[in-house]
Amino acid sequence: MLPGKLRLRTLLILLSVGGVILTACLLLGSLLIFQKGNIEDSLLESNIAYARKLADTTDRYLTTAQRELVWSAGQIKGLTIRGTFGTRPIACGCSRAFSIPSWWLTATPLSPRPRRKA
Known about the structure:
about 120 residues, mainly alpha, two-stranded antiparallel ribbon, 2 helices, rod-shaped
């Protein structure tokens, strides 16, 4: 066989193999594009579901915390500590008031409580 001559059998084999390779490349490219969009949609849906679950959990936690604060404020409402330093009423934000010693408001956290002389 001379290098410049091309036989019909060789031409048909090259065209067949080329067609299969070209078809496979186009099929893989279209699948990649479709799957990319499908994966993005799936991730967005799962992220939205997670965000809703997180928001619901946070809402329940804050509601429970508010209920406990209201209950605690109700328990504190009846307490009044009376001492030689006087008391000062404090509003807790829930239309209830309770009293604490005025020296609690002026004392630093590290200073000891003043003692009475016996």
